[in-house]
Amino acid sequence: MFQVMASLSLLSDVQFQCCICQDVFSHPVSIPCGHSFCFTCITSHWDNSLALSCPKCQTIFEGRPELCENYFAKEMSEQIQARRQNSISGKTIYCDVCVGKKSKALKSCLLCLASYCKSHLEPHLRVSTLKIHKLVEPTAMLENRICKRHKMLLELYCRSDQRCVCVLCTETDHWCHDTVPVEQESQEKKAQMKRIEADVQHMIQDRLQKMEEIKLSVELSKVSSENISSVGLLSRNFRFCINCINSLPADVHLDPGTANPWLVLSEDQRQVWDGDDEQKLADLPGRFDTAPCVLATKGFTTGRHYWEVNVGDKTAWDLGVAQQSVKRKGVVTLCPEDGYWTVCLRKGSEYWACAGQAELLSLSHRPQVVGVFVDFEDGTVSFYDAEAQSHIYSYTQFKFTEAIFPFFNPEMSDGGSNRCPLIICPISRIKEGGDLDDITI
């Protein structure tokens, strides 16, 4: 199975290209004749055509056919887009106007869809008709900032659908949706993260003050085991400070009924790894049959929860949460739109946030233990390096409408280099927060 999945990445980009827009599929759908197109491309084509026919094979339909989402094409198209983005990330953006030796771009114009060096940017700073153009930091693939349907700038963010849209989109598919300027959404998310960090720091100071009160009121030799445990919880590790914000340490166990047949679970259901062989298991409705994934036995519908996973020296893994109704059969797409809030490791050193657009994360060192924090009411899923006491990534301002479950993917063993299991840490580790010898009273 894993060999088949790996071979899919070798398929040509042309096989996942819409014949209408001549670009890689965006939200691909299939029609009865079997051909696939971008959703906006085929709907716009039929809106502007006298006959309802397939643009590729010219099959004519009596009525407007039903559009079926092509999950396979969607998965492969997103991989192609990610590969293209990765190929240009970290590279210098050059001026599009320079002839011969090109100079480094100073700004990119979202209306001109071009990047300019200092000298060629000058008209945008002087000419009145150009001064109103939207200038941003040098950016590659500027065409991705343009609505493919309306050919206008994606300057708004739809909070209802969690995606960027143009002004005309708000008059059609996104009518009456909660939309705000892209810049406002970005600033508010940054402000929210700062508030979270400030709350954590305030909580730390408050807990330390309470520790001093305990010290003054009770002799250390008479402190009950309950107080000692509390001191251990409040002392040295940032991850437990996160856990203390009225959250509940989660007793997480893996659900064998959801585990892919290639995965092996330990007897205590706290460890999972790739077994290299497919087991003969019942094809239950809740079992992942293609993606090497497994969910926890219990989900959350309220409250704050925290758990930790020992990832050790594994070279690839996925961790996070998934909503109860996620697709279990066929190729799985890890993104909030499909009900997954995850962070993953690839190639031993590439950490990614699996958001709508996959985001490459910059970590100072490889985490050995990853903490996952969920605030159901606030719509937050955060990841932490539990031992380095540092923040990795957060999904914020999501509205959970159903139960969400801890999610695990140990990835393939890769010839043994990634055979180590994902290990769910026991609650006792979270509650203790380290040896009592490390505590300063």
TrEMBL record:
GO terms for biological process: innate immune response. Keywords: Immunity, Innate immunity, Metal-binding, Signal, Zinc, Zinc-finger. Pfam families: PRY, SPRY, zf-B_box, zf-C3HC4_4. GO terms for molecular function: zinc ion binding. Residues 142-182 form the B box-type domain. Residues 1-21 form the signal peptide. One of its GO terms (cellular component) is cytoplasm. PROSITE patterns: B302_SPRY, ZF_BBOX, ZF_RING_1, ZF_RING_2. Residues 232-427 form the B30.2/SPRY domain. Residues 18-58 form the RING-type domain. SMART domains: PRY (SM00589), RING (SM00184), SPRY (SM00449). Gene3D superfamilies: 2.60.120.920, 4.10.830.40, Classic Zinc Finger, Zinc/RING finger domain, C3HC4 (zinc finger). This is Uncharacterized protein. It comes from Echeneis naucrates (Live sharksucker).
